[in-house]
Each structure stands twice: as structure tokens, then as C-alpha cells.
Design goal:
Length: 317
């Protein structure tokens, strides 16, 4: 990977003689179809601009929504959108400077990591719904463990991917860059497995809530749950794509064709981030001090009591 970028121009006498001093300093050289780069193509300007605008606007909206409701945990969605914005801004710059290693490595790093912030928001949302609405007994694990367990796996995944990215970036041979890719693949595989387990638990808890009549008692909750579930599925789908992409290596079929990246990463995450803008959890979930597990279990064991009225603050402003 690293050997196909700016260093090619410097090693080749004919190409090196064409570089200006400014190009040598900045690493910004116009696209030459006869010289390969780390992308294996010149990133399209239109894709970079569209996704940069979408993620930039979404970031501003997420910041406003979180600040207005003062539900600070949901800043994770804004952080994820910022990461996506940084990655696509780097790809936009790569249209003009396709051999610039810094842009390539920046977009690789932040676009792999950013979905973890959306996942963290989902972990917290499920724990809030369990503790404040449905009761501890509806979940196979304690709601307090959702954030602790799954965020830990995400952090481990990020650390492994970072190590792999560093090895790939500093590698000078195909073997070294391939080793970096394999380490990054291990990291994203952990991320995928962790998110897949969480989505399974998400579906399990919602299924139990539905079977116990909680969703029938709260019909207004159905649309938010549908939207948030769609967001979780989009993240898993994107993670599957990135695993397959890295498994093929730096010269693989998927990584060498921008259309797959634009659709299966950029578009999926753009839809995800906008969905959470449209149905932002800060507007729907009352994340004040949650009811105790003991209180919720007492309520769920009282057969003579009707289904308790929702503690969700629908439509509150």
C-alpha cells in the first residue's frame, strides 16, 4: 500500500523530475492514470462533497438536539458524525491530491472507527429502555452491563485496528502492509461480532417487550424502535462489508472500486446518521434517574396492575 503512493514519484527518476518543491512538501500531485496510488483510483469529487455536506449538517443537528435536551450521552452520535465528516473531507482532498498518504490513512482510520460511536449510543438506549420501562427481568443481562461490556469490546477493536493501521502505514514491503491489513481485519471482526451479539440482544428484548404487551400499550414507541433498529442493522451491514474488503487485502476487488465503498460504507452510514436525526432518542427517552431494578420487578410481578404508563417523554420539548 505505502509503496504505491507518493514515494513512487520520488523513486522514479522521470516522475521525480516533474515534481515542484511545493509538491514535494505537500505531497499533492495531480492524478496520473499511469501511476497507481493507495486507493487504486482517483476519488470522485462529487461523492466526497455530498457525503461531507450530509455528515457536516447532521453533526450540527445532533449537537443542537443533544444540547437542547441536555442528554449528554447522545453526543456519541455527534462524535460519530464528526468522524464521518473528517473521513469524507480527506477523501475530497484526495481528489485533488490522490497520492497524499496522510489523506488516505486519515480516512481509513476515522471511517473504520466512527460507527463505534453510533453503536455506543444504541447500547445506552437499550439500557435506558430496560431500566425505565420494561424491567430488569426482560433482559438476559443486567442493563448496566450493556455499555460496559460492548464499549469495552469496541475499545479493544479500535486499539487493534489502530495498531494494524500503524504497521500498514509504516510498511515498506507488500508483506508488511499485508500484516497490517490482517491485524486491522482482526479488529474490525471483533467489532462486527460484538455488534452482532448486541443486535441479537436488541431483538430479543424488543420481542419480549412486545409479547408482554408493552408495545401495544405504547403505540407511539413503535416508530422510534423501528427506526433505531434499522440504524443498528445498517451498522452491522457496513461492518460486514468492511470485513470482506479488508480480507481481500489492499489490492482486493472491493477496495479498488470506489462505488462499493460509496454505497456500502458512505451511503449506509449517511442514512444511519440521518435516521437518528429524524428520530433522535433525546426527544423520546426520558433518561433521568432510572427506576431501580427492585421497583420494576415488583411492578412486573403484580398481576392485578395494568401495564404501567410509559416513562418515555414523547413529544416533550
Amino acid at each position: 500500500m505505502a509503496a504505491t503512493a507518493m514515494s513512487l514519484f520520488i523513486r522514479d527518476d522521470r516522475l521525480a523530475s516533474q515534481l515542484t518543491d511545493d509538491q514535494r512538501k505537500t505531497g499533492c500531485v495531480k492524478w496520473d492514470p499511469t501511476v497507481d496510488n493507495s486507493y487504486h483510483y482517483q476519488p470522485h469529487l462529487s461523492a466526497g462533497l455530498v457525503f461531507s455536506i450530509v455528515f457536516g449538517l447532521s453533526t450540527l443537528v445532533h449537537l443542537a438536539q443533544t444540547t437542547i435536551k441536555r442528554k449528554w450521552w447522545y453526543l456519541t452520535f455527534a462524535l460519530g458524525a464528526i468522524g464521518e465528516l473528517m473521513g469524507w473531507a480527506a477523501r475530497t482532498d484526495s481528489h485533488y491530491c490522490p497520492y497524499k498518504d496522510l489523506d488516505f490513512m486519515l480516512q481509513i482510520a476515522v471511517l473504520i472507527i466512527s460507527p463505534c460511536f453510533f453503536s455506543a449510543g444504541l447500547y445506552y438506549m437499550l439500557s435506558v429502555m430496560i431500566t425505565q420501562k420494561w424491567g430488569r427481568d426482560i433482559s438476559p443481562i443486567s442493563p448496566r452491563f450493556y455499555v460496559a461490556i460492548f464499549v469495552t469490546f469496541d475499545l479493544v477493536s479500535i486499539a487493534i485496528q489502530g495498531a494494524g493501521g500503524g504497521i500498514a502505514a509504516s510498511g515498506t514491503t507488500d508483506s508488511e502492509t499485508a500484516n497490517g491489513a490482517h491485524i486491522m481485519l482482526a479488529g474490525i471482526a471483533i467489532q462486527l461480532a460484538s455488534m452482532a451479539v448486541f443486535v441479537f440482544l436488541w431483538f430479543l428484548v424488543i420481542s419480549r417487550a412486545n409479547s408482554r404487551g408493552y408495545l401495544r400499550a405504547e403505540p407511539r414507541l413503535k416508530l422510534p424502535l423501528l427506526v433505531w433498529t434499522a440504524g443498528a442493522v445498517l451498522i452491522v451491514t457496513r461492518n460486514i462489508y468492511r470485513c470482506v474488503e479488508l480480507a481481500q487485502g489492499w489490492n482486493g476487488y472491493l477496495i479498488s472500486r470506489e462505488v462499493y465503498f460509496a454505497v456500502l460504507d458512505g451511503m449506509l452510514m449517511a442514512i444511519c446518521v440521518v435516521l437518528f436525526n429524524i428520530v433522535h432518542p433525546a426527544w423520546y427517552l426520558n433518561s433521568a434517574s432510572p427506576a431501580t431494578t427492585e421497583d420494576r420487578n415488583l411492578e412486573s410481578s403484580d398481576e392485578e396492575k395494568p401495564v404501567k404508563k410509559s416513562r418515555f417523554a414523547f413529544g416533550r420539548r
